[in-house]
């Protein structure tokens, strides 16, 4: 096996701001970046057309490209009908920003897909994703749901009911290993028609956990990235670890991606640890071993 996929890094993983994170990404030897675009300097509302052109020019000048934006609005995802009007609208604006910056992928968490398709939450998620998917498709883009909160089988069943593939998949093997205990290799094969972006992350599952306690759900606390990071760091149920030190079988994972013909980015995410830059640099080298 010889990988030809480009390597990306979530610049926010460095914890030093976008511009400095871009420089560190370049120095680490990656080819692309993924950037959170929901608040602060990267909120679409805060970036004029001129600012977008300047940022794209800056990234191009570094010899980098954007693999995707993160459009994760947190809370209960799209599970609460009353919140969906503004969330769907903002998500569309994030897609517009992505296209202005040279990528057509926005990754997100939509909230756990219920196993029961007749439930109210399922219907609410479906309505939001149908609108998002149709918009994305109309402009040549994708909303990519991150794997982990539900099994690959439940996610595929949900995606199969949508009218377009405008809503697709951002495949994260560590989330599956840590939370649902799902097999990433089988997940790749099951979701092969929908995978448009991937994360490269590793982890360990130490104890069974209810995904709703991690990712939130109606009737549970909303999803909170800081809370998830605390759970990951505490190691009570699962732990995110540097690449090659966890339960993700990267030989098999990369082989599965190659088998399905995936040619997109392998984007490194490091949500915990007190030396993220060290871990990210090691992760870049880890992936390069497969080239």
Automatic annotation (TrEMBL):
It comes from the Bacteria. Gene3D superfamilies: Divalent-metal-dependent TIM barrel enzymes (3.20.20.150). This is Sugar phosphate isomerase/epimerase. PANTHER family: HYDROXYPYRUVATE ISOMERASE, INOSOSE DEHYDRATASE. InterPro entries: IolE/XylAMocC-like, Xyl_isomerase-like_sf, Xyl_isomerase-like_TIM-brl. GO terms for molecular function: isomerase activity. The lineage of its organism: Bacteria, Bacillati, Bacillota, Bacilli, Bacillales. The keyword Isomerase applies. The keyword rRNA processing does not apply. Residues 24-289 form the Xylose isomerase-like TIM barrel domain. Pfam families: AP_endonuc_2 (PF01261). Keywords: Isomerase.
